Amino acid sequence: MVDLVYRGYGPQSTAGSRLVMVEDHTGFIAPLPHHALHGEDGFSWGYGGSGPADLARSLIIHALGSSALCTTCHGTAMVLHAGAMADQPEPTPCTRCHRGYTVSMDLYQLFKADVIARLPMTGWTLSHDEVMRWLSQHASRLSTFDDLTA
């Protein structure tokens, strides 16, 4: 059990507009890393869109930790292939993941629809355990990116 809480602050709060923080049992607070794939405008919630999709993806990646990293490129989103000269490998985009992570689009889009789109615009709290419980209930129905491209 990981004792983390994810907290989203709505636009009316003094913490800022659409800020998502990670809090641990010691009181340490840090911003949730934004693993942008759908837009650079940041997180949002309470509806289905690009900001909520990035929030869903980022929450799942954070909750899974290193197990979300692609085992082919080790999170770099690039792999080395033999180039024209064998002693000079060329970096190419990894085809086994989305920007270094194997969280499938089907999985985080379902999480967006089930959880993120239903969060109140004014703010919310989700525990790490709630995210992991949702994943354990739904992951068996959905493949990772690795499975989809194999």
Automatic annotation (TrEMBL):
InterPro entries: DUF6166, Multihaem_cyt_sf. It holds the Pfam family DUF6166. This is Uncharacterized protein. It comes from Mycolicibacterium fortuitum (Mycobacterium fortuitum).
